[in-house]
User: Fold these one by one.
Assistant:
Number 1:
Amino acid sequence: MADVALRKVVKRYDDVEAVRGIDLDIADHEFIVLVGPSGCGKSTTLRMIAGLEDISDGDIMIGGDIVNDVPPKDRDIAMVFQNYALYPHMTVAENMSFGLRLKHYPKAEIKARVTEAARLLDITDLIDRKPKQLSGGQRQRVAMGRAIVRNPKVFLFDEPLSNLDAKLRVQMRIEIKKVHQKVRTTTVYVTHDQVEAMTLADRVVVMNKGRIEQIGTPNELYHKPATRFVAGFIGSPAMNFIPCRLEDVGGTLQLRLTDRIAFALPPARAARYNALPRTDKLLLGIRPEHLTESHAHLGPGVETFDAVLDVTEPMGMETLVYFGLDGTPVCGRVDPNAGAKDGAPMRLAMDLNNMHLLNEETGAVL
Amino acid sequence: MADVALRPDGIGTAQPARKRSGLQKALKRRSTAAFLMTLPLIILIALLVIYPAFYSLHLATLNKSMQKFVGLGNFEFLFRRDTFWLVVKQSCIFAITAVVFKALIGFIVAHFVHNIPAKGQRKWRGMLLVPWVIPPAMSTLAWLWLFDPSYSAFNYTLSFFGIGPIPWTGDAAWARFSVILVNVWYGAPFFMIMYLAALKSVPDQLYEAAAIDGANWWQRIWYVTLPMMRNIIAITTLFSLIVTFANFDIVRILTAGGPLDHTHIFATWAFRIGIEGSDIPLGASVSLFMVPILAVAAIFILRDVNKRGNEA
């Protein structure tokens, strides 16, 4: 087991920079998830750590040693691929033991390690089968088993659950978390699925256009996003961004959303935003769960307004409501019994204690 | 009781309708439609392959003048002739050696081509296929010139190194070498293109997984490439074995079976005896001899393919 460090790592393909000088420190035993839209450079970063891609610039260190020119087999890493990459002509046991056999481990030790990994992953019964005789979930377990038996310094996962159906994905997500709790190997996990990122990671690295947007715990990213990209990427449905401006009215700071709608900011927020220039183009960032139905006992900092709902989506435990504020589409989350109907007016409440204010031009959260 | 009494009646009225719908169903079934659509080709194959095959079986049982039934007489006669056994031996040497080298060269060249960047690959693929595209009767004529006893370009070139002159088609061993060489030159591109297709179908991630598992390039070929290509290798080898065993044009043009029958293979010897020697029944008997030999090879190879087919 080891820590991993990336120092100003760059990957260039001809004229295109896929990864633009990223710095990342991954602690020993840590579970790091790289997340971002396709083409953001997350898989390339993982493949550079694995040694499957050369790095154009910068340094990669595993366990304190620079491994820029070390071939994959000598980096002491194990990788789980999206399409499993199991050898179709080998049995489960042969697949799992392949790396150890190449390194001429004693037969008894190979058997012990394979048995232990199979037990851990609950695939003992499948040990003599060929990959073709396994389901997608079982194949993914075998792929993980192949990584575990090697007892490597670092596990690398490249979108391992993308090929599974939704139900199995949830199940395997929990399995991966359990396995990590047991073996505690440093793990770098790549996914485009923010739910996977949030549920698995000790820390999440959000990437966009070859750069790291933000590194933080799932809670930090959710509640304190640094940029508009992170704020919009993490959370489903996504955070609403509503054009707004700050106004001083009678000594209090007001947030004006439309000609009709303006709210006085709660004191803590007012103090934070008071110094901002009033002319700036600003965006209000508010998550759907902070836009709920209005009721009698609203706390301080929660303001109400009327809206005509365009569409409602009953989800069972909640109903998503969609409406427009001066042409900006907005999504809210209301109680299923609040009586939300398509085309009907509704009184809604906005919790300004959980609002974010963003610079529209730079995308920075203020 | 009432049920039992009513039943025969019911069946009696329902049956014609059921029959008709049964026929309609059979016609609508996909397998029936598929069979009907392939029927023209099946008839064509029957006419062009099965009829001649049975006709040659019939011919092989006749005497030289094709007037009298002699049973297995022609085969008995062949078994007693040394030339026949020479042809059997030569056919085996020719086919096996040529196929082995074609497969080996095809495999190596396919790897080289596979590693050429996609841009230039088409050009190389096209150029490397040329020997296979030229009709062998024509290209063999060119080889004949290269091997010509008086004007051999090879011997001319080798003379600069103090080697030769080599009797390319004049000496038994060299003549065998020459016909195999030309056959390999002609057939290797076929292997190359088949192996290239197989190589392209091996997912890159398998190689990456193997690289991470610690396999060097040789272990990657041995543990990943070869097992993944096994079926293609088997089928290509079988196909080539059949075609090479039945080869006619290259040997016919290059050596015509000489010197002293030392390069004859089944097809050329069957031609010599059957057409040139006017003993068509004996020629048919010779050519029929390829069937059991190839059948054994086919059974072994296809059984392996079937077994492996369930893995990929």
Note: Residues 1-14 of chain B have pLDDT under 50 and may be disordered.
Number 2:
Amino acid sequence: MQLDLPILSICIWLPILGGLWVIFAGSKLGEGMVRVQALVISIAVFLISMLLYQDFDPTTAAMQFTERMTWIEAFKVEYHIGADGIALPLILLTTFTTILVIGAGWEVIEDRVNQYMGAFLILEGLMVGVFCALDALLFYVFWEAMLIPMFLIIGIWGGPKRVYATIKFFLYTFLGSVLMLVALLYLYRQTGSFDLAEMQAVALTATEQKYIFIAFLLAFAVKVPMWPVHTWLPDAHVEAPTGGSVVLAAIMLKMGGYGFIRFSLPITPDAAHALDSFMIALSLIAVVYIGFVALVQQDMKKLIAYSSISHMGFVTLGLFMMFQIYANTGNWQDAAMGIEGAMVQMVSHGFISGAMFLCVGVLYDRLHSRQINDYGGVVNYMPKFAAFMLLFSMANAGLPATSGFVGEFIVILSAYKASFWYAFLASTTLILGAAYTLWMYKRVVFGEVRNPKVATLTDINGREALILGTLAVMVLLFGIWPAPLLDMMHVSVEHLVEQVAQSKLSVARL
Amino acid sequence: MNDIALILPEMTLLGFACAVLLLDAFIGKRVPQAAFWCAMIGGLVVLAQLASYVPETAKFGFAGTFRVDVVGTVLKSFMVVLVLVSFFYAREYFAKREMPHGEHYSLALFATLGMMLLVSANSLLTVYLGLELLSLSMYAMVATQRDSVMASEAAMKYFVLGALASGMLLYGMSFLYGVTGTLDLSELLIKVSVAEDKRLLLTFSLVFLLVGISFKLGIVPFHMWVPDVYQGAATPVTQFIGTAPKLAAFGMAMRLLVDGLWGLAEDWQQMLVILAVLSMGVGNILAIAQTNLKRMLAYSTIAHMGYLLLGMLSATASGYAASMFYITVYALMSMGAFGLIILLGSKTSEADELQDLAGLARRSPWFGFIMLILMFSMAGVPPFAGFWAKWFVLKEVVQANYVWLAAVAVMFSLVGAFYYLRIIKLMYFDEPVRNQAVEASQDLKLVLSVNGLAVLALGLAPSALMSVCVSATLPYLPW
């Protein structure tokens, strides 16, 4: 059934307006009502976004559900949105995660509940906007506006060093994005339009492409985050409230990867080709070096934050290997596999890292400590929780039959086609990931009870079980049967590869 | 078109300014609101007159010394609106402190008259006349709080430095006259472009004119008066100085540099590049070190004026449109920010220290939110109007092939983001120092809310105002 509703616009504006409503009507509604209404709004948005999935046509790479309106007449800025197989999974991930986040903050947040719930709803709308903007300026507006609610979430409900962490987060991201703005303005000068498709089609010289690529790189590398601009992430994660960490890890980091796919690769393919070794080197450093860094962390959130950086290294690795794979095999199909692996890894990391942060959140809500040493023997008091956490830890370590395995495996497989050493280095994550995750699990859940307070722990309640259970289902589902995800994006990824394969130099202006 | 019809809004304003003065002198004691309402009515009448006559092409009067065109009329209307809005804030401020305030309105109206003359000037003499009327009124406004040491010091500094800048401007004008033999800007335009052999002298006089303009806008290195005056003056006076006169200074720059000295564009472009970079740098960096909110906003103004120059130096019609959009949006944001200080102030305290904002989001969630909009807007974060202002000037700079300058500008806006974020940190993350509720009259609350929401609305739908600016500067296209 094809409805003529502007579904994407609803997915953007319903949560934003709902969030504003919750914030400003909050004092009248009372806290309980605020929670219920926020949950209802987030579920409604998720259900509406499922209409996208239902109506999506995976056989075409064209943008679907497009809406186009003039925004600023004088300069051809448009409110132009749409989704393809690359954006859709991330949109669904966003609407799905928001429900969990609202659920996770249910009893835990007692201070300014209406603002907390409202901020997450507004954030949801803005994030969906980022994933479906087809006008570069619209994208930039969503991309930057998103910082505001996140800044407040970390700063208001965060831990003791929250102010430092949130200002660092904001300025780091701002640094990257403002240069992206200059690059977009330069592209506007060349094309006379902010339309993404025109920017992707415009011819650029090698030098121009390199500068633009670097400007984009700063914006997206900070978001992913890639080594060496990752230092904001552990701070932000540690200080953020659980919901903030979940959104950061599950969705915001994906925006960096999405930006590479949507902007860097198609707009500056030759620069991406020229600098691919550099990108691969950075990715491998993230995978291996940050893996070692994660090993020595004492703080659970920090450990998962570093493990996120390491896993996101796979995403950038998958994205930038395509040129070398093509050089070796002469087959763009093989090259597309790396990107598909990266996409799967993004979605799966969304579930797993979200789940891991929720697990830490469950413990933190009870003992108000994130230090691994404060725990031990948790399994004796929280058996159900221990079972869930085991599953997610295994997924984080990349165990087969979990979604963590699928993405990593595809990327490693295609890395092998690029170079044996890439595959070799990337594979170390299977060892390192298992080491740091399972070692943490062992110290927290098993062993002797080192802290008398652990004895006071109560097992997860129905709400927490529901949230973790949903995630567990997703992790297993995509681990065993990733086909729906792959089918959804396959044609779009192939289209992307075709676009990137087309050098812009041959048609460059004289 | 006869001369009187052209200058009718100015004459009306003069009449009302005198009426306000007399009303206040004779019935000010018995009817304290008389001056305020008379000034409001005057402003509205002037606004109606401005709106009723927008010429297609420029019209000249008084032997070519006075000029009415679209840019001028649009700027004048914006200025009058800003002045009227500032009166609401001023009334609240003076009423809270039980201070007589009749002369504030009449001085402000005289200053407005000066501003209107300035943006209508088509002769160096008219420029000077308007500028001095504006400046002298503002010196007096700063000095009205004569028992305040800070205000007296500020007024003194403002006067001495202002007089110096006027002197510089006159000096430059005299050279210009010496070289070209005319004071008329339209004639200057032609004579300057053909006077190739006297280029050096012309550039020399241009430097002095730019000093005068930079002083009025508060651009580094002629910014020394800005922080002291902003901090020292009573908040509504600061608010007044920080809004409409900035538009007038922009208008003056347009008249002198574009209408008169277009022939020297290559020279002033280079000079503006240096001034812009200095302003953005010094303003943004020094703002970080401030603990007084008004002083911090003063440095932020200096930085903003640097961004304003970016549009002008691109020397295209849409570049001027960008600057015009920037200055209008800036005036709106600055109006709101100073308005919030007025809102928070009480009879005994000015509430202009950064600490006074601590925990505002708890004391008054709504006005915390309004200030959040204003601060993010000033930092240039979408979806607020300040972003579009920055975007517009940056776009023009990139179009004019100064990509490096755009990169420098965004880097300084990153520095700027820090101190705006600190305000938000104070309001949202810190606990209130004094946990008192925000008390103010309903109409002030309404004006401030509308002001803040306008910044948000302009951020979501900037198209209309942009179109106005673009069409107002359209006559500059043929250059």
Note: The mean pLDDT of chain B is 90.
